[in-house]
Predict the structure.
Amino acid sequence: MTSLHADEAFLGHYQLSHDPFAPRVPGFKFFPAQRKPVLGQLHHLARYSQLLLVVTGPQGSGKTLLRQALVASTNKQSVQSVVVSARGAGDAAGMLRQVAQALNVEQAEIGAILAQVVQLALTGQEVYLLVDDAEQLDESALEALLALAAGAPEGRPHVFLFGESSLIAQLEALTLEEERFHVIELQPYTEEETREYLDQRLEGAGRGIELFTADQISDIHESSDGWPGTINQVARDAMIEAMIASRSAVKRPSMGFNMPKKHVLAISAVVVVAVAAAWLMPGRSKAPTTGAPANEQAQLPLGQGTPQPDSGGAPSVEFAGNSQPMPLPLVGNSQPVMRGPLAEAAGGITEGDDGVPVEGSSATPPTVTTTAPPAGVQPGPAPTPAAKPVPAPTQVATAKPAPAPVAKPAPAPAKPAVAVKPAEKPVTVAKAAGGSWYAGQAPGNYVVQILGTSSESAAQSFVKEQGGEYRYFKKVLNGKPLYVITYGSFANRDAAVTAIKALPAKVQAGKPWPRTVASVQQELATTR
């Protein structure tokens, strides 16, 4: 896992004092029962055998822990332990330089080192030479170590190599059929040892094995094959997935669909228009003047009914051929006519605190009414009415006014006053975040997790730079998006581990690790 997962949210959720599954935990001294016979065998062979001793196991099998136990269990008065690493110094010169420096020898040569070993033997001290990451030694370094292990008649160092199984083939090519080394292969933990290992790791961080169920412990053991280094990775991943699942159960995402803000505003405007229409809807109109239509309604384009100073601020309409604007009062029984297409109601809305358009804003749809002109005034041609007017009865004194017809809304103009900008198409990014590819993979397959980042642009840049089989998906951690980059798709875990070794050095520096496609699919399902 990346260090991004071991953050305060992870530690706080489980109330841990530190990450219990970090590679190096201070004070951690778990040593399973099956390793004790191996430790005793190493001490026995160092005393009675003349062979170089090789301890092998896959990465994360506990070789370093066994080497530490070997050093800790020696008698410091009679044994001087020299620990060197093959990383960065895998040739004979680099190896001999480290040994000579530890033994205070000026010349980094086999003869000078053996002479110092003999001098220490005369004083009752033995030399244990322990080499970590020995699979990285080249042929010259292995030959030098075989020569040191053979030693001189007066004394020799006891050489221990700790490395992966590929080291055996290198030694066999050098020694041919001659027996010059002895191999001890480490065995994986049993399920009970896995449980004890998890318990001690969690206890050191302030909690206990109760954080895992029996089924989870069995799954961790099966997924890790019992190797402690992989147990750390799988157990941490299981805890994080459980944390995400528990938080999702408390805060379930809304089951509704999210609408764009502009659509919400458009719907709000339509609701406001409907409420205003219902509020302003009048009763019956007054009796019309003789010879004049009972009610006359005019369709007006937006923006032409401007208030005039002499009309008391009321909106007015000028008819062609009439020099005097006619006031349009919004009182009495005249019926309003709604104006403006839906597109105008949707765009440019100015809202107050309660979400209703502010009076006087450009978004407020104008409400226009007209009354019949005074007798003797010939109105000019009016715009096309929304509904055909009903003529008044000839007997004004005795006839009742006809009910005003309900006006149909005016059709939307060809070019709305406010153009709604179409939504831009999302930019398609190659191998973008999403579960389509992962959903199509077999759950039993493995991918290699490279890293996690909170920046999607960083994930895109990494995938674009590396190319090939790199891709990423989006998950949610502590309420924030996390973009996880993976590599490839493999039929089993061994194939994924082999692929990790072939990755570029800078990618391997982030400690990539194999995980099942099923675990990715579960995270994607939780994120939805």
